[in-house]
Structure formats: C-alpha cells, structure tokens
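notes to self, project folder thing:

trying the whole complex as one job this time. last attempt i did each chain seperately and stitching them together was a nightmare. two parts in total, labels are on each line so i dont mix them up again. if this works i'll redo the older ones the same way
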Amino acid sequence: MVGISRVDTSFLARWWRNVDRVTLSCVCILIGFGYVLMLAASPAVATRIGASRDMFILKQVVFLSLAGLIVVATSLLSPRGIRRLALGGFVLAMAATALTLVHGIEIKGARRWIALPMMSVQPSEFLKPCFAVVTAWLLTERRSRRLLPGMPIALGLFAVILLLLKSQPDIGMLSVITTVFMAQLFIDGLNIFFVGAGAGCMIAAFLGAYVAFPHVRSRVERFLHPNVGDHYQIDTALRAFGNGGLMGRGPGEGRVKDLLPDAHADFVFAVAGEEFGMLVCLFIIGVFCLIVVRALLKLLREDDQFIVVATVGLITGFGLQAFVNMGSTLHLIPTKGMTLPFVSYGGSSAISVALTIGMVLALTRHRVGESRIPHGRPAFRVRKATA
Amino acid sequence: MDVRVTGDDLRTRTARERTQFRLLVMSGGFCALFGAVALKLAAATVIMPMAPEQRQIAPQVPPIPRSDPKGMLAGDFALPQVHRASVTDRNGQVLAISLPVAQVYANPQEMIDAQDTARKLRSVLPSLNEAELIRRLSTQKQFVYLARDISPMQEVAINNLGIPGIYFEPGERRHYPLGRVAAHILGAVDIDDHGVAGIERSMEKRLDSDRTPLRLSLDVRIQAVVRDELAAAKDLFQAIGACAIVMDVNTGEIIAMVSLPDYDANDFGRADPDTRFNRAVTGMYEPGSTFKLQTAAMALQLGVAHPWDRFSSIPIHIGRFTIADMKSDHFAPWLTLNEVMAYSSNPAAAHMALDVGAQRQQAWLRDMGFFAPVPIELPEAGRPIVPHVWGISTVMTVGFGHGVAEPPLAIVRGTAATVNGGILLHPTLMARDGAQPDDTAQLTPAAAEGAAPTLTPAVLTTPAAAETADAAAMPGAKRVISPETSALLRRILRLDVTKGTGKTAESPGYFVGGKTGTAEKIGPHGGYLKHVNIAAFTSIFPMNAPRYAVYVMLDSPKATPQTHGWTTAAWNAAPTVSKIVTRVAPMLGLFPNTTNPQAVDDAMAIPLEPAVPRGYRPLGPGNDPGDPRNQPKAPAREAAHTAAAQSPRARLHAARAEQTAQQRPVHQEIRG
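result (full assembly):
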C-alpha cells in the first residue's frame, strides 16, 4: 500500500501491512491537534500559575513523542505479549495505586498522585487499560481451562479496585473502570438479566455517591440547577464556544481561552471551539467516533474471544474518556475532570492512552493464518480431526 | 470433507452471534453518545451561542479616541473616552464635566537609561522631582506610577519622546467649570469617580450608564444672581449663614438654590465642613412666623376659621413660658385672621392652632410633608426635628413656627402648595421632561422686546386656575388644599406685603406676596437667645398668577443703622427677596406690570377687617373655644372636643367646622 512491497517479509514491513493504518492516522491527527491546541491554550495557564510561558508546551512535546513511540512499540506486540504486558502492568499499577493512599500527594482533596523526580504519576490511569486486558483474559481463559475460576477472580479484583479508588477518592475513574468492566461482561455474553441488574447497581451506586460525597453532589446540583451556584468554569467554556461560532476566531485569536481555568487540560476542547470553530470540533468528534466504532466493527470478524473482550474493554475506556471530557466541557453532563485523549496536557494521561491504543492496534492486527474460523463461513467449524 | 453441525458448534455459533449483535449495540451506543456531543456542540457554537462578556473579549490596547465634531457642535460634550455624563443647567450650560486625563507609569525593567528618561520627562512635566523619578525608575519593580492626571497634550508630548517602558493609563477627572455656582447641589466625586455628595451621588447610576448630559432644573443665571444678592445681604447684615431658594410653584422645579457660605466645587475635599453644609435641605431651622401660613391654611381649609374671625393677641402663660408678641408691637387685643397674618401675632396664631386641635394639626403637617425629609434628589436631605409628644404647648408653639425645625426647602414646598391651587409637589432638581430649555433662553433683544408688551398683560393676569392643571399633573403631586382656599390664601399673602410686615419685599409691578418669619435661635444651653434670630421670608410672585416661590433666610443677622437696630425678617430677608425678584423675573420671562398695577392689586385685595357675612357667628371675644383658659387641664389632643363639650356656642362652632370638613374634597391623591 504505502511503498513496502509484500515481498518484504521483515518484521516492520509485516507490521506495517497488518496494522490498522486508519486508526494509526487518526492517532496522528489527534496528536497533531494536541500540539496545536497546547500552543494556544497553555501560555495563559502557565503565566497564571507563575510558570514559564513555554513550560507546558515543551513538556507536552516530550509526552506526545513518548506517546507516539509507545503506540508503535505496543502495537508491535503479539496478543500473548499484550497479555504479559497487561499482567505485569496491572500488578505494578495496583501496587502503585495502593501506595497513593500512603504516600500520595494530596491535590484538591484527593490522593491520586505519586511524585516522581521529573513528574507526578497517576497510577490509576495505567490500571484502566491493564485491568481491561486482565479481565478479558480471566473471562475467556475459564472456557479453555476449566479449573481456573475466571469470573470470581475478575469480580474479586474489581472489588479491590473499587475499594482503592473509593478511598482516594476518584469517583470519575471508578465509574469509567466500572463501565468498562460492565461492557466487557456484556460482550462476553453475560445473561441479559445480569446486565440489567449490573446497570441497576451502577445507578444505585451513583445515587450512593451523590449522597456520600459532597463534591459529587455539588457538581450534580450545579448541573441540574444552572441558575444556582458558581458556574464560572462552565460558563467561560460555553462563552468560548459561543465566541468561536461556525468557523472559529482563527489560530491564536482566542480571547476567552485566556480566562479559562484548566484550558490546557480538561477544557482544551473549548479552546478548539473558540479558535477553530464548530467544523473543526465536529471533525475531532468524528475522529474519536471513527476510532471507537471502527475498532468495534472490526471485532465482528474476530473469532478470538479474548481479543474481542480485551479490545472492547480498551476501546470503551478510550471512547468514554473522550465523551466525558467533551460532554462536560459542553455542559452535556456534570463536570468531571477527565482528559481528552492525546489532546489534553498531561504525562500520565498521554502515556496511558498511548498504551491503550497501542494494545488495540496490536490486538486488531491482521494475523494471517491464525484465524480458526474461515472467512465467509462463520457459522461452521471445520473439524479435520473428526473427518 | 465431512461437515456436521454439532451441539457444541451450535452453542459457539449462538454465542458468536450474540457477541456480534452486542458489538453492534455498543457501536450504536457510542454513535449516539458522540452524536449527542456533536448536537450540543452545534447548539453551543451556532444555534444558541452564549456570547462572551465584553471584558473577556475586550481588546488589550485601548481604542483610539475619535473626535466627534457633530456632538461638539450640538453642545454635547460627551467626549468619546469619557464615561461619566456631564451635568448641565436647564439651558445646557455645563455645570460638571469629565475631562480625559492620563496617568503615566513605567516598567523599570524595560528602562534603558533612568537618568536620561527622568531628564526628558521633566522637560514635559517640570513639576516632577528628578531625584525621585530616578529612584523610582531604578527600582526592581515592574510597575511604578510617575505622574497622575496629565493632560492629553502632555501625554502626546511624552509619547513623542519615544522612551521605551513608559506607558499611559487613560482616565478622567471631574471638573466644575463654574466653581462655586451650585456647588452644594452638584456635590462631588471621589478619586475613583464615584459620587460622594449631591447630584453626583444620587444620580450615580444615571451618570455612569447614559452619556447624554444630565439636565438639571437649575438656571445658572438665576443661581448666580441669587447668590450675588444673598452674599450681599449676608455681608451687609454680617450673618453667619444664609440660604435662598427659587422654585417653580407649578412644576416643583428648583430654579436656584444657594447656601452660604459656599465653596469651590473643584475643591470639595479641602473645603471647610461648614461651607459644605447645605442649609437649604440639611439645615434644620425653626420656621418662625413663616409657619403661621400653614396654621392659617389649615384653619381655613378645615373650616375652623374664616378671614373675619378674631383671635386674642393677649399673651398666654403656660407653665413657665409666656407666649407673647414683641413689646414694641401694640396690637389690638383681638385681631382678625387677616390681621394675624399681616401683623404676625404669636398668641393669636397659637389660638388659631388650638381651635384646630392637636390631632388635626398633626395630620395636616404630616400631609404637607413636614414630618419627613423633603423628597429631593439630594442625599443630604435631612429629617425634620418634630416633637414626639404633641401636648397643648406644642400645639400653640407650632402654630407660630416654634418647637419644630424644618429645612428651608420644606417651607418653600409648603408655601407653593398654598398658592398654586392647593397642590403639594415633589420639589425636583431635574428639568421636567418635555420642558424645553427655558423659552426665555433666546435673549435676542428682538425676542425680548417683542415678548415684553404681549407677555406683560398675558402672563400677569392669567388666573391661577389655569396653572393648577399643570401642577396636578406633576409626578408625586397631591391635592392638599381646595382651589378656593388657595385663592383666599393668595390674597392674604399679598395683603402681608401691601399692608403688613412684608412691605419691604414689594417689587413694583410683580405683585409679590409672602410671609415674614423671625425665629429666635436656641443657644448652646438650650434656651432661646433674645437677639439672635433666624430671619426668613417666604414669598411668591406674581401673586395674581403664581409662578415662582422665592425664599431667603439669614442666620443670625446683625442690626445696621439702616435697620434701626432691628434684626427681624422685615428688615433684612424681605428686602433681599425684593432685590432678587426685581433682578431674576425678567430672566424668567416675567416683566413688571406698569400698565394697570393698581387694577390688578384691587382685584385681589382683601380688607384687614372683612365684614362678617350674615348667618355666621364669628370667633372672637366671648366665642373662643380654643382658649387654653377654658380647658386648662384637658389633654392637648382632646382640646377641641373638650372645648366643644363645655360651651354650647363652641359646640355649634365645632359642628359647623366638622360639617365643612366633611364636604371638602381635600387629601385626595391625584397622582402617586
């Protein structure tokens, strides 16, 4: 397709032929937007917090380069490699998340971060993709290895994560991981009755969080009653969109963005809205939608249940994160601090998202001759042995 | 190859189909979620965008000022870079205006050569201290002020020096080009241009929101003349303070309001507090005999008294006090109401008040607005000092204007209501809407000459009834007196000038009418000071068709050889009114009637001792229901009723009074 001959059987050439190049291009587009919007959004924020004007930009150049490398490197792995990586990552991330409760930095009332020499890391960001893969493995492996109690172990791990995240507290991450877990059970073929029950539990848990956590209640209250309370952030974000209009003010011409708290991170989408307008924002939404839906549709032809469940988990987490970010910036849902994948500033987030997409790319690669079900006759299974 | 479908195969196949179906459901779900985001995005950007606030998208460099030649030609001084509206008088003369200035500041971090900069700056602003400039320019800060309030020309000159690191902050400063004229009314602004007194404070929102000039009802020409005459009188009689008011009795517009001593409005901050004291609305003075007008109006309107009724002028002893007239007054023992007003007898006025009674007197005064601050657009308007206990002695002393303290403007307001057909107005400093700049503003000789012959008879003979329609239509107007009583009061007030104490207020051809008032001042130890007076004269002209109220008050005037030792109003305040009327009336478009003054005067004359019509038994000797000697111990508020119970003749009188009271249509609200 792009200049590499099919005769070339080197490792990289095979990777290039087999990898999902559309998704890879989408990731490149998003990283490009990430650079452009960081140039627009971060100087004002940096000046406000007293840092050097270009601090965020320079750091983000490093983060996004690292993210690109991780995407490619991870996508080179085989499904088996992915499983090992996820297992290792899961163990590390669990330990680190547990460590936050003891040695975490407290930011705005929550202990989610661990300080490292160069940067601070949010381990739960890495927990999300790793747990999705581990869950997929546990759920599918129980079919081939009858002795492994996959379901109870998965539920047990989930309970532990629930407890850790509730103690931080990080209700946003908790709800994303829960939704991902539910989606995986759903795809794995859980009885529709249990799916309904799970959804009911989530609603009940949400109501519980509303009652138990004052900051959750305040955000929901402010969302439901637009005339009460402080809406400075969301109002400023909406004014930024309003100022942008259809075509936007043009690069660097945004004004409202300078007053937007967290313009470089959680509200980066509003900066895109002000400077580039509705059309470009629609394009960004389209790119996210394409990545998610394309991955899901590709799974229709996939017969390896582990790959299906793992990819669904990874891509659901990715898509949900994008939706929550854009939705809360547009006041479609209550404000929840979540980054826009590849676009927002943030090291942990960029690397975790890169890991997620890298795994998706690795799992959805064409694996010639590996399919157990021939294409075109999906309903039948040829058993040579019994013939 | 043998192809069979086993049970295991079937299960796998069903599971696979279920997974595929669920994957499609999830794809649909994600499409819906992102579709919702896209819709909300369209709503937020295009369909119903939330407009950014002005300050959020304001350009970071100030707009370049543009000249406004049209606005300047139209006398509109709204300068483009100035936010606060100017204030003008009724003819458009600017009284307060904001002028653009600039503050100079520097960023010392950007300074190349502090000494050179300081030297250059001094060439434009010589008042700066060079050493101090160098010190400031050499600090490690990023922001230092260098000079404040420099003119636009100086700003251009400094800009032309081309010094990097020097910046300007645009601003504006309030100026009062006429200095002392109307200083008390205009008030002042603080350093941040917020009004702190006067119109500047009460009209703060209007001045900041609408840049069209605020037009006041004042006429600076009248204001200047009144100030001139008042200052002359104050100097001549060595008064410690003085105040004068000219008000349109039909609209409530204040044409002039002067309080002396005054101050330069540009120097508000450094002015002596005594000079900043607005005697016209903040000063509380016992009104003295000017209040007898209210007593007479009340008694006539309530039907308690008639012009022919007689009241005893014999001194009244109550407690340790004696209510008496000055020893030099040799009054007949019984005076008609007209004589009481013309000669100003205290005991007789006290008897009149007693006949009305405490309750009705209080109700009347409350209705006339004497118990509340005068409604005027000045935050300084004070609350009158009114006794809490309204005993019999209060009834009597208030009857001749002692025991209460009122601001002069309240007296003027009350006086206007007695003559304008009976309408109590809200005095105002705002030019009434629709009222064009005064029709006499065109001072071309042709217009004045042309107007004079036609105006003279026309204006000065119009019956007042024609004017009352105007007065009743004013916002806040309230009928308090019937037109008939008002007509009668006009005659009585004119009588005071033709035959009574106010003779010195006469201005030939202008038919001035009014009431003198001399109140003894209360000394530092509470007692009245015998020879320290508040002398006031409240007047109206022309009396046959009232147009303007003129009030003059002198605080503690001294006697001069010309006054033969007198310090009463007839010798100082009344002549000042005459001088003011003679000078301001032509400016107000009123010219003296020189053709038939006697005929006009005769038409509104009323005898000092009117004949008693048939069927009435006049009050007088032997018929004095309010005499305190008749009911020495009765509580004040019962006074009138008790009296009625005691004497059959008095009962007859009271019944008649009540009957009249029921018939009259007073106190009806005309417009809220």
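what i see at first glance: Residues 371-387 of chain A have pLDDT under 50 and may be disordered.
need to look closer tmrw
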